[in-house]
Amino acid sequence: MDIFANILGGMSALADPYVIAFMVGGFLVGTFFGAMPGLTSVLAIALLLPITYTIDVVPALVMCASIFMAGMYSGSITATTINIPGAPSSMMTALEGNALMKKGFGANALGHAALGSMIGGAIGAVLLMAFMPIAAEISLLIRTPGKFSLVLFALVVIVIVDKSNIAKGFVATLLGVMIATVGIDVLQPIPRFNFGTETLVEGIDIMPLVIGAFAISEVLMQSETWKNSLSSTLEKAKDLRICRRDFLPPREEIREIGLFAYLRSAFIGYGIGILPGAGGSMAAFVSYAMARSSSKKPQDYGHGSREGIASAETANNSMCGGAFVPMLMFGIPGDPTTAIVLGVLVINGLQPGPRLLENQAELLGPMLGSLFFSALILIPLTLWLFGPWFIKIVSIPKGLLYTGIAVVALVGSYVATYSIFQMSLAVIFGVLAYFMRKQNYSTVSMLLGFILGPDLEEYLRRSLSLNDGNPMVFLTNLDSLFFLALTALFVWAILIRKPRKSSAEMRRDV
Amino acid sequence: MADRAPLLRTGVLLPLFFLIVTTVYLAAAFDIRSQFAAPGEMSPRSVPILMACLMYVALAVVFVGEFRKPTADGPAREMLRPALVIVATAGYIALFRPLGYWLATLLFTSALFGIFHFQLRKPLMFAIYAIGVTALFYGLFAGIFGVRLPTLAEGVF
Q: In this structure, which of A33, A488, B43, B67 has its CB flanked by the most CB atoms within 10 Å?
């Protein structure tokens, strides 16, 4: 209960105009990056990561949280208006929202997307704050072998979530773990893989990896494909007119969707957010599929279902709250955005875990508050103020945009440590990530492997050294056994179990 | 259509690169010496060796998949523009300290505008945008966040 009170107390920092400026600024940056096809909130946070070296941790975390929320919501803007999801989590919204747009209800679809995002984001943030003390209690019960099995569970789930590319996901994750082993050993003061140079003794910082994998690789990808991207769609988009008064969804439409549907989607999104590697796309898809299967109007789906938009958008924004749980409690990020937020914590010398909540809740309170207020206030406010001009976002010349991103990425990687070496590393990782993305190796897996690798090694070695090298310790500890069983369950459910046939398919077979 | 031999496509070359990196990594792992080792304790090289072995297994699966796959890369000319971006970026890093932020960034933005074919037919707009981008991010980093960026005078003297 103390933790909850401390979090609420810490939220008072949001009354500081300086912090509010970072929240609003972050939200606008997140909206821009989320709405622009090809750009994501992950890229926005990656580009701003070096700036967090020069500002206090509270505004940095507040800004990251508002970017996360904005990026998740604003993907629905171009998904609805020009049928190009600004973010992958808005695929379902594109399906339904653009159908409504073609029928002349574009503003109404954007209104439903914003309302769903607002409800989902706010509920996700409340659930995060409410369950945080319980999660902290639980995390205190987990001992070193259990922590190893938990990190292993996270890495396995991250790899197997993309069923079509398991081997490549495994390679990317291992690559991340291998990069993380450069530098001083996790338990002994011995430099590893520095190849005789002093520069590598301190290890590789997260910042050049993030900038390279998400910003520089994106510039390289776009330099290859930018010409054929949006020209024809933009011609059509020029004629679109959106009025502010149409953004407000009529009460009867909201009643038809129903409070239960919003709540169910919010809980689904939050639950999926907790799973490592799942992310907003899975939250939106599962919620959408569930809403469709229990809908009174399933025939509307695919032709402009407001219920479909609400379910997908509520879930993907609620996911934001869930994704923070494993990151704050165990240092295990649920998705790339929280992985970078973890980097912000580590840069500022903060170690995730229950102790962080107990001792420094005043630092986390504003971040959790930022999630809540971004959803509840900034989403509707931004739609109201800037909604009619949202469509113009995509018409920014790509040459100008990606040149700007390249300059921010490179200068940003320099200013963090005033090191040309960091700049060079960012480019090396950028080129590597570019080729990896072209060949469907997940750069997110590489980043999560890099972040979780040192924990995996430390917990493995500590567990074994405390038990005379006996690996049975992982099976005799109950918490460890639980996470190993959970890992096995996920492997079975995702890789081995055959999907059940629907009743319609079974009837057809008969 | 493929215009390169199956063995020279990035689907094969990239895991081959990983294979070489892993081999160098494994060789370096064997050189790591532990300061002390209690009974049952894993040494600092144990996990890297384990990771390298797992990487070999994963790469073997990737190679099998790649050789079974009939697809190949697109035309090599697709790589020209990314290659130019990499060259421009390498040049920017090399010149960042000697020329200072302003001149190096101005040259870099001009190079990228050229690669992205941005405002090439309007030299005045090209110059205004290049100066504008350089000034905008100078304002962001040096003005708002108080970061000290290198200057031409520092590089020369």
A: A33
- Answer with the residue of higher pLDDT: A481 or A95: A481
Q: Does A236 touch chain B (CB under 8 A)?
A: no
Cα–Cα distance measured from residue A145 to residue A130, given in angstroms and rounded to the nearest whole number: 28
Of A14-18, A40-44, A162-166, A353-357, minimum mean pLDDT range: A353-357
| B80 and B55 within one domain | no
Question: What 3-state DSSP class applies to A183?
Answer: strand
Domain identity same for B135 and B89: yes
Could A464 and B41 be called an inter-chain contact, meaning their C-beta atoms sit closer than 8 Å? Answer: yes
Q: Are residues B84 and B32 part of one domain?
A: no
Q: Taking the CB of residue A4, how many other CB atoms lie within 10 A of it?
A: 18
The Cβ of residue B45 has, within 10 Å, a number of other Cβ atoms equal to 20
Is A185's Cβ below 8 Å from some Cβ in B? yes
- Give A336→chain B minimum CA distance, Å: 22
To the nearest whole Å, the CA of B150 is away from the closest chain A CA by: 9
Residue A188 at interface with chain B, using a CB cutoff of 8 Å: yes
Q: Tell me, what amino acid is at A239?
A: D
Task: Collapse the DSSP code of A191 into the 3-class scheme (helix H, G, I; strand E, B; otherwise coil) and give the result.
Answer: strand
Rounded to whole angstroms, the Cα distance separating B53 from A311 reads: 44
Choose the closest CB to B38 out of A430, A465, A470: A465
Are A366 and A19 a contacting pair, CB within 8 Å?
Answer: yes
Say how many CA atoms lie within 13 Å of A99 toward its Cβ.
Answer: 14
Task: Give per-residue pLDDT as tens, A357-383.
Answer: 777 777 888 888 899 999 988 888 888
Are B80 and B58 in the same domain? no
Do A195 and B28 count as a contact with CB atoms less than 8 A apart? yes
Domain region containing B146: 76-156
A331: left (phi over 0), alpha (psi -120 to 50) or beta: left
Determine which of A29, A63, A159, A185 to mutate to test the interface with B (most B C-beta atoms within 10 Å): A185
Contact at 8 Å (CB) between A226 and A399? Answer: yes
